[in-house]
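B., you asked whether I could sanity-check this one before it goes into the benchmark set. Here's the sequence:
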Amino acid sequence: MARAKARRRDARARMPLSAHLKEFRTRLILATLGVAVGAVAGWFFYTPVFEALQEPVIAAADRDGAAVSVNFAGIATALDMQIKVSLVLGVVVSAPWWLYQLWAFVGPGLKAGEKRYAFGFLGTAVPLFFAGVALAWWVYPRAVDILIGFTPELASNFLDAQLFISFAMRLVLVFGIAFVFPVVMVALTWARVVKARTWLKGWRWAVLLIFVASAVLTPTPDVVTMMFMAVPLCLLYFGAVGIGLLRERTAAKKEARLAGQTGRDIES
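And here's what the prediction gave me:
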């Protein structure tokens, strides 16, 4: 029984390209279904989430006495906003599920004895994703406060609801997904798709891209907000490289030991 399962796992690891594409489609469909289920749950939490998103706007209006509000420009805008918020909440709520599907797609590239690392992947990726979401939620009101502060005196600032929601939801997703990428790096190194030394050789470009992406994706013009995203990502990047190097060194020692043992067996 155990040998049969091992053969099936090994056969899956040697799947041709067409089979890998089919596997990718299956995992994508399962992940999408999970997000859809989460979106249904998110639909019922739209009101408290929207009220929380509005709080910085209301606070800025009360503090400065300016005409600042979220403006619904079209007859279907409110419905469209609720759908968008529900979908993003679905992505957040179902993060453990679609992260598992990501691992299940990468997993066949690992050896049978390495499947147990799925728990390590999920146990690291899920908290990091939610940590990124939490950091985005912390940055959001400060970003809104800074941006509204550019409104000239005696002027009104009617925020387009579509742009307002897109701004908030993009911030949450970008931070969450960005914090997961280092775990994906480790998974690719573990599956021997990308060598750790390849990640290490490109560290200068990686740091540059992280800072550029942080400057573009963070909505405020101040350096502090950008650093809140860039510095943790740089630390996570180098942490992922270190884990990958340690993994490759351990694997090389193990393979050398097995090769030496095989050579002695042949001689004897």
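One thing to flag: Residues 26 and 101 are 9 Å apart (CA to CA). Otherwise nothing jumped out at me.
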